[in-house]
Amino acid sequence: MTRQIIPVEPFDYVIFGGTGDLAQRKLLPALYQRDRDGQLPDASRLIGASRSDLSSEKYRAFAKEALEEHIKPDEREDDSLNRFLARLDYVKIDALSDDGWDALRSTLDKNDQGQIRAYYLAVGPGLFGTISNQLDKFGLIDDRSRLVIEKPLGRDLESAQELNKAIGKHFREDQIFRIDHYLGKETVQNLLALRFANALFEPLWNSSHIDHVQITVAETVGVEGRAGYYDKSGALRDMVQNHLLQLLCLVAMEPPASGEADAIRDEKLKVLRALKPITEDIVGATTVRAQYTAGAGPDGKVEGYLDELGEDSETATFVGLKAEIENWRWSGVPFYLRTGKRMAMRMSEIVIHFRPVPHSIFAKDAGIPISNKLVLRLQPDESVKQWIMIKDPGPGGMRLKHVPLDMSFAENFEERSPDAYERLLLDVIRGNQTLFMRSDEVEAAWRWIDGIFAGWDETSQKVRNYTAGTWGPSQSIAMIERDGRTWNDGDS
User: Residue 264: which of 275, 250, 274, 251 has the closest Cα?
Assistant: First the structure.
């Protein structure tokens, strides 16, 4: 079945930081793919904005080079490529002064047909408030404007509140799109479909039937030349506060009243507010932080984090947590979260472990029934697997076997699955905020995260080590095995 292409209204997308790494790797390729699929109206324009001294013609050459590097050759047709490049324009602009803002306004006013204007701030968070102020000052904000910002959305609760206040002076909350590309992944959205479109799962989605939940986001890469930046954030700020907590919310939230954005975000907020604080007295038993040391990467030997940084540091490149949600649905069900760099494999997944059968009717030689689990693999190779027990085929009596009911997206859907940014960039134009974080969500997440940092400081919790190319420190394994459970190390 051919996917129905739903066009959007005409728009102008202004990418501040239009010559940066994010624009090259993600934004320009994503917008090209949507244009290639026929979703960009003829009147839509894409405008790069940065301090680089480029003409529009040179920016098109820059964009073409980015697409040649990041788009597969069989997806680069001449017609679609030329059509996309023709949409591009460029303005040299200085966010810290008034230079270039009149030129941006003139560019936008040219051929203006009342289209939506989206401003994507692919720049450091220190410029979010400044650019918002300049857009307002030069009359570039109206009721149809949108603002898109990337993490980090602060580094603690106080800075997040200041950031929300700074951009909130110029944009309404329904105009602000705080992007988390994990929420644009196909499998993440399939979690909503699995829970709320199937009578099979939702009645079981509670502490009576679920034993525990695991959420893993593992990377094989290190800090890759970003050690200076990364050392100011670390795994807890860089990954847990946004990606992992958003995934936890989607797993744990109550059924929303509707599929509307605020109905879903209201339920996610309730989960964040129900998280049991990790205080000084339990931080040692429920958290682990660690750094990778020299070991093996996908391409051979790699240095340790401190070697790459060139100085001593207590910044964690791995964090493991045991979280609890204090409400009726999830009382007594632990959520184990972990994320790290230089781990054994690149893998992001959510694993729902169901409780074991209360009594086995089978003889010992049939084998012990293994608990069912539902595995949602986000990357690589997006898939959904439901592990169940069956009889091993053949004669010789009853022998139990643990097997997956497997749905691989690549094998079951012939059409290319859009990248997360492709979906999210056009959701901005549609004004659909379902997959974007609201200001109170961001602040609630930081409030919980700040408690962990405070617990670490108060107890002087040691930063452990793990060898690059492994599944993290032994203390992370011990944390979950103390509860009689074990990590799902890519064996799904």
Answer: 250
Kindly report the CATH class assigned to 183-418+438-481.
alpha beta
Element of type H or E holding 68: helix 56-70
**pLDDT computed for residue 1 by the predictor:** 42
Q: Does domain 11-150 have CATH number 3.40.225.10?
A: no
> Residues 295, 342: contact at Cβ < 8 Å?
yes
Domain with CATH 3.40.50.720 in the chain: 11-150
Question: pLDDT tens digit string along 12-45?
Answer: 999 999 999 999 999 999 999 999 999 999 999 9
Give tens-digit pLDDT for 302-346: 999 999 998 999 999 999 999 999 999 999 999 999 999 999 999
Assessment of whether the complete model's pTM goes beyond 0.85: yes
What are the catalytic residues?
243
Phi first, then psi, for residue 261 (nearest 5°) are -55, -50
Rounded distance between C-alpha atoms, residue 117 and residue 13, angstroms: 6
- Helix 28-36 with 420-430: angle, nearest 10 deg: 80
Q: What is the DSSP string of 408-473?
A: EHHHH--SPPPPHHHHHHHHHHHT--TTEE-HHHHHHHHHHHHHHHHHHHHHTPPPEEEETTBSS-
Q: Which residues of the chain have pLDDT under 50?
A: 1-2, 410
- Say if CB 248 and CB 271 are below 8 A apart: yes
Q: Cite the beta strand spans of 99-240 per DSSP E.
A: 116-121, 145-149, 176-179, 210-218
C-beta separation of 170 from 133 below 8 A = yes
